[in-house]
Amino acid sequence: MKVIASSLRKGNVVEMDGKLYAVLKCENFHPGKGTPTTSVDMRRISDGVKVAERWRTTEMVEKANVDEREYAFLYEDGEGYHFMEPNTYEQIAVSAEVVGDDKVFLGEGIKVYLRTYEDVAIAIELPQRVVVEITETEPVVKGQTASSSYKPAMCTNGLRIMVPPHIGAGTRVVINTEDYSYVERSKD
Known about the structure:
five-stranded antiparallel β-sheet; 188 residues; SH3 type barrels; flat; 2% helix; mainly beta
């Protein structure tokens, strides 16, 4: 199915020259003068080679027809990362190359969307927001909360993020999985 280049997102699968590519990163550029473009970093599914492409935002791109279903994360072992389809209890093992840097968000029971092509997982899509707990950060300094400065913090999953000054260790926060940015303090 053909889609315009600006509608591509991380995790989409594109078909070019008879080969499938998983989108790793996608950015739209709108310069003040000139043609807006979409820059896409992709990984060729057959051999794992990374490719960078640039299209005009209105150009049509062939989006591959893949099966996309929700799976729950179970565990990780030597074979890779194991997920289960909640309705059929069918399990699938996903290689570390497909999961990539998103492995820090895989906790027991987290729901993700897996894209499969001929029963092989080719791309993973995390929920847009996840809750993590802050393990360590700088202490709150009185009077510093008025400014809009952020301070570094370490999460239980090993991720370093920037949080507002009022967030302390032990606080659960919501972060955006696309750019690892702080969204809000967790409501639970």
